[in-house]
Design goal:
Blueprint: H1 3-11, H2 19-45, H3 49-70, H4 75-96, H5 104-118, H6 121-144, H7 155-226, H8 232-263, E1 271-275, H9 276-286, H10 288-293, E2 297-302, E3 307-311, H11 312-328, E4 335-343, E5 348-355, H12 362-365, H13 388-399, E6 403-409, E7 413-421
Parallel strand pairs: 2-4
Antiparallel strand pairs: 1-3, 4-5, 5-7, 6-7
Helix pairs in contact: 2-3, 2-7, 3-4, 4-5, 5-6, 7-8, 9-11, 11-13
């Protein structure tokens, strides 16, 4: 069992609790442990009922706050309640257990550290100022009226009290350091991932976007300068090339923008009722010219009244990429079959897009959805691509609580299968 797993068990899962929540839980957990240790130490030293009562009160109070903290109750109120309760050990320990020569200063340091971390702005300044004011007042009282304080009768009791307080401080600071270091490592990995994404983004723009734009510019220049001299058949061929290149470029730009928004966290998932039939046929309509140019037969086997619960724009992007790829890698006079049905047992919509295209080698299937892999191929009519589309498909399907997988055989075709939550 790793340290992070133990932290999640004790302080709350990091995907549910904020760092501030977990720091508060760390302080409360440390207080509970030390209160129980203090009970044992007091029994060994034979201290009176006041010590037992105080230790029991602190264990019960911190345990109650810790319980509500783990239930994700109002964290702001819990912070203030914890800081208020934490004043009790400062005052109690100062009065009954050795004044400032006892464990009071250790408790003071621990509370100031927690207050500095889990509060902010003027509230932080006010709380720390108040704590410094309280400890200063205690210092003034003790130096001018030392008889106010009950000092330890022997050195052994003083050492035991400081030892228990030091354990509290050690446990709390250790948990805090583990939390902070783990949070720092997560941020480092996030920054590295963002840098990698940025480099990938710039690489695609520099290479895959530059080439088609350059081709469009050259084709447009040829038409502009020689449109009166070019035979009709050749002119149509040039126009077809411009249309194909501009369509591919548009799809690339659309994928790049969606990917950039997703990686930057700007893409908000807004699930809604989706008509699968309408969505698939809308995308087939967009690809109609490409389908006709290759004389591809489309077979649609989609149940009527089939509705998914997912984000429209994300799933539209998924179907656009999957159908576009099916057309791209299917040769002339090939076939594409789209099937969709509802699985009543698990309330999922099953969609499959099959083609009779060139297929994918088994060793390359794993590369299709790997963002760090640059695997890409030309289509049957030499259509270019970046491989970004399928990576987007996997990410968007996952965000919508679905799955995507592929089965393929070289020279026989591929089947991409998608599941999405059904609209209830």
């Amino acid at each position: 069992m790793s340290a992070i797993h133990i932290l999640n068990k004790v302080l709350g899962p990091e995907n549910t609790f904020t760092l501030k929540d977990r720091i508060l839980n760390a302080a409360l957990f440390s207080s509970i442990v030390v209160s129980l240790l203090a009970l044992l130490a007091d029994s060994f030293q034979g201290l009176g009922g006041k010590a037992y009562l105080y230790d029991s009160f602190m264990a019960l109070t911190n345990g109650t706050i810790y319980y509500f903290g783990r239930q994700k109750s109002n964290s702001r109120r819990l912070v203030y309640l914890y800081l208020l309760v934490s004043l009790t050990p400062i005052l109690f320990v100062w009065f009954y257990f050795g004044g400032l020569s006892g464990a009071t200063l250790l408790f003071f340091i621990a509370i100031v550290v927690i207050a500095a971390i889990i509060t902010k702005g003027l509230i932080r300044f006010a709380i720390i100022t108040a704590l410094i004011g309280i400890i200063s007042l205690l210092f003034f009282i003790e130096t001018n009226n030392p008889e106010t304080v009950n000092y330890f009768a022997d050195q052994s009791s003083l050492i035991t009290d400081k030892f228990i307080s030091a354990i509290y401080l050690a446990i709390m600071l250790s948990l805090l350091m583990l939390l902070i270091m783990h949070s720092y490592r997560k941020e480092q990995l996030k920054v590295e991932s963002l840098n990698h994404t940025k480099d990938k983004f710039l690489s695609i723009i520099a290479h895959d976007l530059k080439s088609p734009l350059s081709a469009l510019s050259q084709l447009g220049q040829v038409l502009a300068e020689n449109h009166n001299k070019i035979p009709p058949a050749k002119r149509k061929k040039l126009i077809d090339s411009i249309t194909k290149t501009s369509t591919n470029t548009y799809n690339l730009v659309e994928n790049l923008l969606q990917w950039a928004r997703s990686e930057s966290g700007m893409l908000v998932i807004k699930p809604e009722k989706l008509d699968i039939n309408d969505l698939i046929h809308f995308n087939l309509k967009i690809l109609e010219d490409n389908i006709q140019n290759k004389s591809i037969s489309i077979h649609s086997q989609i149940e009527t009244n089939l509705y998914a619960w997912a984000d429209y724009h994300m799933i539209h992007t998924v179907f656009r990429n999957l159908l576009s790829n099916a057309v791209k890698f299917t040769p002339e006079h090939g076939e594409i079959t789209v099937q969709a049905s509802k699985n009543a047992q698990n309330s999922k919509i099953n969609i499959s897009i099959s083609d009779t295209g060139i297929g994918i080698a088994q060793e390359n299937i794993a590369k299709l959805f790997d963002i760090d892999n640059d695997f890409t191929r030309k289509g049957t009519n030499d259509e270019s691509g970046t491989g970004l589309g399928l990576k987007l498909c996997k990410e968007f399907i996952s965000k919508n609580l679905g799955t995507i997988c592929v089965e393929s055989e070289v020279l026989k075709g591929s089947t991409f299968s998608v599941t999405l939550p059904a609209q209830s």
